[in-house]
């Protein structure tokens, strides 16, 4: 619950602040050709959303992902994991798209979806992921529908979500093997 609350409070705060300031301009993730040593943007880009719909969809997906993960992994570790993997995702995306700008919390959500996949592989003692549940249907629906390029009008959404999933899956496996997660 801690991780969900922290992310949603940060997302909501930045969304509300966007009515007074241009948060896209101030905080969005930027490609390596245009970031101008403002590397904090790898993190802050995760906080800004295009609109209320974008924010609500990411918050709902985060709710269901963390509903499944609840009690399986320490909350502080989940928060650190999602922060690190989300920021790494933005860093890699910035290298692949050096002249781009990106925003949104979906790298956080896809990182945590990858952690669910890691648990299925590494922790056979835990209950498995079940598509015939509300959380299963929400997560599967989000994973599919969020890759349809509604806002970006190109394949960058699929790319950034794939990066987030891949980075988190690899770091999740390593973290589990060395007991960091």
TrEMBL record:
<feature type="transmembrane region" description="Helical">
    <location>
        <begin position="103"/>
        <end position="122"/>
    </location>
</feature>
<dbReference type="InterPro" id="IPR035952">
    <property type="entry name" value="Rhomboid-like_sf"/>
</dbReference>
<feature type="domain" description="Peptidase S54 rhomboid">
    <location>
        <begin position="37"/>
        <end position="174"/>
    </location>
</feature>
<keyword id="KW-0472">Membrane</keyword>
<dbReference type="InterPro" id="IPR022764">
    <property type="entry name" value="Peptidase_S54_rhomboid_dom"/>
</dbReference>
<keyword id="KW-0812">Transmembrane</keyword>
<feature type="transmembrane region" description="Helical">
    <location>
        <begin position="134"/>
        <end position="152"/>
    </location>
</feature>
<dbReference type="GO" id="GO:0016020">
    <property type="term" value="C:membrane"/>
</dbReference>
<feature type="transmembrane region" description="Helical">
    <location>
        <begin position="39"/>
        <end position="66"/>
    </location>
</feature>
<dbReference type="Pfam" id="PF01694">
    <property type="entry name" value="Rhomboid"/>
</dbReference>
<feature type="transmembrane region" description="Helical">
    <location>
        <begin position="158"/>
        <end position="180"/>
    </location>
</feature>
<dbReference type="GO" id="GO:0004252">
    <property type="term" value="F:serine-type endopeptidase activity"/>
</dbReference>
<feature type="transmembrane region" description="Helical">
    <location>
        <begin position="78"/>
        <end position="97"/>
    </location>
</feature>
<protein>
    <recommendedName>
        <fullName>Peptidase S54 rhomboid domain-containing protein</fullName>
    </recommendedName>
</protein>
<keyword id="KW-1133">Transmembrane helix</keyword>
